[in-house]
Amino acid sequence: MDRQALEIPRIGVRPSGPLDSICDVGDVTVGHCTLSDGAVQTGVTVVRPHGGDPYLDKAPAAATVLNGFGKSTGLVQVQELGVLETPIALTNTFGVGTVANAQIRAAVAANPGIGRGLPTVNPLVFECNDGYLNDIQALAVQESHYAQALAGAGKAMEQGAVGAGRGMSCFSFKGGIGSASRIAEIQPGQRHLVGALVLANFGRLPNLTVAGRPFGRRLADRLDRGLDQGGENAAIVPEKGSIILLLATDAPLDARQLRRLSLRAGAGLARTGSVFGHGSGDIALAFSTAYTVPQLAERPMPAIAMLHETRIDPLFEAAAEACEQAIIAALWRAEGVHGRDGHHRAALREAAPDWRQWLSDTEF
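Given the sequence above, the corresponding structure tokens read:
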């Protein structure tokens, strides 16, 4: 089945870019390395902010920690300096250190002076815990898997149970990688893109909201009436997952403005039914492709006019809508996966084949 051709619910009213993914923005590309072998169901996803060397030409960026139950690395320096120095990597919780080492090796190979005549590099890795489906203790993610994901980065990205999303769960169904884009009209003749990519591994089924409808409550009722979900009562399990939300925009924003943009990812997350639960690590990062910041002081700093603060609301709206759509894409495009110890996550679209009728039902 072609995951990318699947019909999914359309969120919001703003138009999307041609790919309806984060890859609509600038030269952003995405690559995956998927590990699927019995109890090992995991992987690595890499987002490249541009086609050059992010150590030499840094992308402006900022992050918001909505709930800090996570083990990411590199966030402190991003918050302090407001730039990315490596591609953004996503993986499972126990793979963070390995992937960070791989990022350092790749940066040193491209710039042998790192850590000697040049400053050190700040690896940036985000994680979610895929331990329900994946034997996370196997430490299966290797440095070579980051290299494969990086080498495979392109515009035609896969979504669903791929890369870092392979073992992730969302609202007690199969989650993973989802992406979307929205066009923000700042003023007549001035448009900018906002793209979102999520690693979705969160949510309680009764809270699931799709296009404003209480979708999860209806599906939870069906579960209670006999749908097999691997022995787990999806209606009562506590919130214990995480989500990483990445935003890219071609709008000229500085790091302070990007921090404000990253915060609006939380609006899109909340619309799907998340309450940023105790056990959920919810982190959002936004970056701009409009300019880069040079590593070397001998090179000139960019001279670019930033977007005026009073015209930023359309970007906020586009960010919220794109994040909401990306989460729905992760749910609808993920296939069912069997993992460790007989654990299984079903595809949501298979549990609710009549979802179109549900969303069009005026009494729903």
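The longest strand covers residues 57-68. Try to locate this feature in the token string yourself.
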